[in-house]
């Protein structure tokens, strides 16, 4: 039986929930108004939620003017992020669990890491980093599975003022090498293998391959996690656990400026190579901790589980920095939702009495297809709030999540945000804002969304409207620059709509002022909640000797949200074949990683181009979507007949 979603329905929290919530409807309205009327006063107050070494006297100093974009928050304050996430809780929470680690294999016992233990392990790792010469401002690349050492590594970097850059363990050696080189990292921290779903990714082997393309001064710290055999290079590789055992159990933290970088995280843009998004210390931590507490209505004693990987920003803000700054108990899961069976998420919720559960629509859709019996087997009575992130959640998935996981009584928060925004931008606060399935609802405090006409760049003032989503003013969690390229930062986010931060998303605003994200309007696609630049996949494909040209677009995919659709023109004389299709898939996996593998490859003898040679992607998108009726004007094409051929041979016609 399929649950019938009602997309026009409004879901209100229960009176009991509202009574106990940090923020109710009245408080939201008052606080939001205050946050945009006088951001200095609002954030001066909420900036106090973290501990400062030197208190700030300045609050907001930001400029969105193209050519002069400059973003500073709390600029004369000093702090240490690691001390905020650990040391300041030691008086009241030393023996409270900071991190619950749930391993890939449920037969391996889970770990409960207290704040005291977190301080010791983080200190030991910080001392090892210092011993290999890592200093304040140096870059450290982290390429690890979802193991406690990933948390220690992040917090150890923050402790000594090093800037971490996590590379998701699903990225290939080439992608890893590019990131190590782009930020000129001194050290890479990796593990022997990353077990996931019973399979093992050879991280050390990947790192060995990557380091062939990097400076030979880069040191490699290795966590022997599975204990399987690995290749070892004596002068370069260091056994991290062993060094941590030998290191001192305490490391003092250093005083950092509010605007000193905390981390770099590479993400895909619409053009060129991945962009190194830079987040700094003070504003980011204020914003990550405040959103974690209020969006999920986190209370002391709750167990918070964000199922993301620390390789994505969601893991940075909502597994590590937000929850730990709040003294929360955060769950870190090494595995996948379907191993050893499709009930794993719910088994873990029951086992650790999870209070807030935060996942992506793609996971919900894939579990939905396997039937509700996997959910019903487990006791989910501890759940209070459910969250969704990464892509629009379709009403069917929302309804399934609500009915089977939330039993119709738990608020669902659909959080819209980006790597660039550091934390939630549009989201219901669960005790304050009624949900509508598929809408990210209203802005978080301090966020001023505007809807613009994509053609004229005029702001749509009317409530009910549609257009591109921009943000009119800065908020503390905003990225500050792109690593080493402030010009590209301005070009990418502030050039299109002058005076505004451009999200890259389209949206609709309904009569209640609720926002509905309609998806990216640029050449970025969203595959299973992972962001991918079509240009990146194209350049991987054309790097293959048999490929002359490639054009990549997204198309609707039942589980992944969007799939990767590649049109490939082969070199003269090369014949298409299934073997070649497999070869190209493998090639892209190797160049970027498994997440970039095309779902469909269509052989295209020609691509639709204008007379000036520009590929008309609009047409390619329509064909990939099986939407041939609305191809629009094709008369400007150099050779309109290529379109007929592409339609004729559209993959997986249904
Ligand atoms: C893009 C950002 C930081 C969140 C994880 C992804 C899409 C994100 C939603 C949502 C509709 C969403 C947007 C955005 N997106 N959350 N709740 N509803 N779309 O971060 O990799 O930086 O991707 O994800 O298109 O621009 P990211």
Describe this structure in words.
By secondary structure, the protein is of the alpha/beta class. Among the domains are: 80-336, Rossmann fold (3-Layer(aba) Sandwich); 528-649, 2-Layer Sandwich (GMP Synthetase, Chain A, domain 3), CATH 3.30.300.30. Helix content is 30%, strand content 22%. It has 21 helices and 30 strands. The protein has an eight-stranded mixed beta sheet, with helices on both faces. The chain has a seven-stranded mixed beta sheet with strand order 5-4-17-16-18-19-20, sandwiched between helices. Helix 6 (115-131) packs across helix 10 (240-246) and helix 14 (361-368) packs across helix 16. The longest helix is centred in the first third of the chain and has 17 residues, at 115-131. The chain is globular and about 75 Å long. The structure holds 5'-O-[(S)-butoxy(hydroxy)phosphoryl]adenosine. 5'-O-[(S)-butoxy(hydroxy)phosphoryl]adenosine binds at residues 267, 313-314, 389-392, 414-419, 440, 503-505, 517, 520, 526, 531. One of its GO terms (molecular function) is acetate-CoA ligase activity. ATP binds at residues 390-392, 414-419, 505, 520, 531. Residues 94-474 form the AMP-dependent synthetase/ligase domain.
């Amino acid at each position: 039986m399929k649950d019938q979603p009602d997309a026009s329905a409004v879901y209100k929290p229960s009176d009991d929930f509202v009574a106990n919530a940090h923020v109710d409807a009245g408080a939201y309205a008052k606080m939001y108004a205050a946050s945009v009327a006088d951001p200095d006063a609002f954030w001066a107050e909420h900036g106090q939620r973290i501990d400062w070494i030197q208190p700030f006297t300045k609050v907001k100093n930001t400029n969105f003017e193209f050519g002069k974009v400059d973003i500073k928050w709390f600029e004369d304050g000093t702090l240490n992020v690691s001390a905020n996430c650990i040391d300041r809780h030691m008086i009241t929470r030393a023996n409270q669990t900071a991190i619950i680690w749930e391993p890939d294999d449920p037969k391996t016992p889970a770990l409960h890491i207290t704040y005291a233990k977190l301080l010791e392990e983080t200190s030991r790792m910080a001392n090892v980093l210092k011993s290999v010469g890592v200093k304040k401002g140096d870059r450290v690349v982290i390429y690890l599975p979802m193991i406690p050492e990933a948390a220690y590594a992040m917090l150890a970097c923050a402790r000594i003022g090093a800037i971490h850059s996590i590379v998701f363990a699903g990225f290939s050696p080439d992608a890893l090498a590019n990131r190590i080189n782009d930020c000129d990292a001194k050290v890479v921290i990796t593990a022997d293998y990353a077990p996931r779903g019973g399979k093992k990714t050879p991280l050390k082997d990947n790192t060995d391959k990557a380091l062939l393309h990097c400076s030979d001064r880069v040191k490699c710290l290795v966590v022997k996690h599975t204990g399987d055999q690995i290749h070892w290079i004596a002068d370069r590789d260091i056994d991290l656990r062993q060094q941590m055992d030998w290191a001192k159990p305490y490391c003092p933290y250093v005083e950092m400026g509010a605007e000193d970088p905390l981390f770099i995280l590479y993400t895909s843009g619409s053009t060129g190579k991945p962009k190194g998004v830079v987040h700094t210390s003070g504003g980011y931590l204020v914003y990550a901790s405040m959103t974690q507490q209020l969006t999920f209505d986190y209370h002391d004693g709750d167990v918070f589980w964000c199922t993301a990987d620390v390789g994505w920003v969601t893991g940075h803000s909502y597994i590590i920095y937000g929850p730990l700054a709040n003294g929360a108990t955060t769950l870190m899961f090494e595995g996948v939702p379907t191993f050893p069976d499709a009930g794993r998420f719910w088994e873990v919720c029951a086992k650790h009495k999870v209070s807030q559960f935060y996942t992506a629509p793609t996971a919900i859709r894939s579990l939905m297809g396997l039937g509700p019996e996997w959910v019903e087997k487990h006791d989910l009575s501890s759940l209070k709030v459910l969250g969704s992130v990464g892509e629009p959640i379709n009403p069917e998935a929302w309804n399934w999540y609500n009915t089977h996981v939330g039993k119709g009584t738990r608020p669902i928060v659909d959080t819209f945000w980006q790597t660039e925004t550091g934390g939630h931008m549009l989201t219901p606060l669960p005790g304050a804002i009624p949900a509508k399935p598929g809408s990210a609802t209203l802005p978080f405090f301090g966020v001023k969304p505007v809807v613009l006409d994509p053609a004229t760049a005029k702001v749509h003032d009317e409530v009910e409207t549609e257009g591109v989503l921009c943000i009119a003013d800065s908020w503390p969690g905003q990225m500050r620059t792109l690593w080493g390229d402030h010009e590209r930062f301005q070009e990418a986010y502030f050039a299109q709509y002058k005076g505004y931060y451009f999200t890259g998303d389209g949206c609709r605003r309904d009569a209640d002022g609720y926002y509905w994200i309609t998806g990216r309007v640029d050449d970025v696609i969203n595959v299973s909640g992972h962001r991918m630049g079509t240009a990146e996949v194209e350049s991987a494909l054309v790097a293959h000797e048999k490929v002359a040209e490639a054009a990549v677009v997204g198309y609707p995919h039942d589980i992944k949200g969007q799939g990767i659709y590649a049109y490939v023109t082969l070199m003269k004389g090369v014949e298409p074949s299934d073997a070649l299709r497999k070869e190209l898939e493998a090639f892209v996996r190797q160049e970027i990683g498994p997440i970039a593998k095309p779902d469909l490859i269509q052989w295209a003898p020609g691509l639709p181009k204008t007379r000036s040679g520009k590929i008309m992607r609009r047409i390619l998108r329509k064909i990939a979507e099986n939407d041939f009726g609305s191809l629009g004007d094709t008369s400007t094409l150099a050779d309109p007949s290529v379109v007929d051929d592409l339609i004729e041979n559209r993959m997986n016609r249904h």
